[in-house]
Amino acid sequence: MLKSFDLDIIKRAIKIFIIATICLIITTIICYFIHPSFNELKDLGSTSEKISDANGLERVWKYIFNNGFQVPLQMFILALLPIPYLYLINLVVTIILPGIMLGFLINFDIHKGIVGSIAFIPHYTFEIMGFCILASALYLLNKAITRRFTNLFRKNKKENYAIKTNFINVIKSYIFIALPLIIIAAFLETYVADFIYNLMT
């Protein structure tokens, strides 16, 4: 199936994933040395409270709806603006917030923090890789749109990129790679993460 895709999208996604993971680790380390109050940590975690309150398949569906539909739609809309890398905002937030929480959690309780970090790895890998695939495809679409826009103000026009081709690549990358990864991540986050955490604490 991968033969039908632009392999550069996958290669770029892997690079984005590596950078994102490095940012997550750095954020976690920095926040480990910050000493927040319990209320600050509680407030930080309140953003996902509605999803966490759900159980079983209801929780899975909420994860899929949020991460599989809402977030990609936001990224797509931002990619339509002729501003490079604006569509990465969602990915950055998705990386930074868990990094902050993990750093704070390790600070409060090193055992639970490390266990929480281990439990976080499976769904993180699939979810963020899904976002990275989408971001990689959106990079080309946004580049094509930005080039068309900037050419409007240039005397010497640069070669335009094919918007239609890149749009199709975005759809294919989302449907066949990104969304399945995010769906798997939803199940992992609902069942596997809790299982690992409860097993090790």
From TrEMBL:
<keyword id="KW-0472">Membrane</keyword>
<dbReference type="InterPro" id="IPR002798">
    <property type="entry name" value="SpoIIM-like"/>
</dbReference>
<feature type="transmembrane region" description="Helical">
    <location>
        <begin position="88"/>
        <end position="108"/>
    </location>
</feature>
<feature type="transmembrane region" description="Helical">
    <location>
        <begin position="167"/>
        <end position="188"/>
    </location>
</feature>
<keyword id="KW-0812">Transmembrane</keyword>
<feature type="transmembrane region" description="Helical">
    <location>
        <begin position="63"/>
        <end position="81"/>
    </location>
</feature>
<feature type="transmembrane region" description="Helical">
    <location>
        <begin position="128"/>
        <end position="146"/>
    </location>
</feature>
<protein>
    <submittedName>
        <fullName>Stage II sporulation protein M</fullName>
    </submittedName>
</protein>
<feature type="transmembrane region" description="Helical">
    <location>
        <begin position="12"/>
        <end position="35"/>
    </location>
</feature>
<dbReference type="Pfam" id="PF01944">
    <property type="entry name" value="SpoIIM"/>
</dbReference>
<keyword id="KW-1133">Transmembrane helix</keyword>
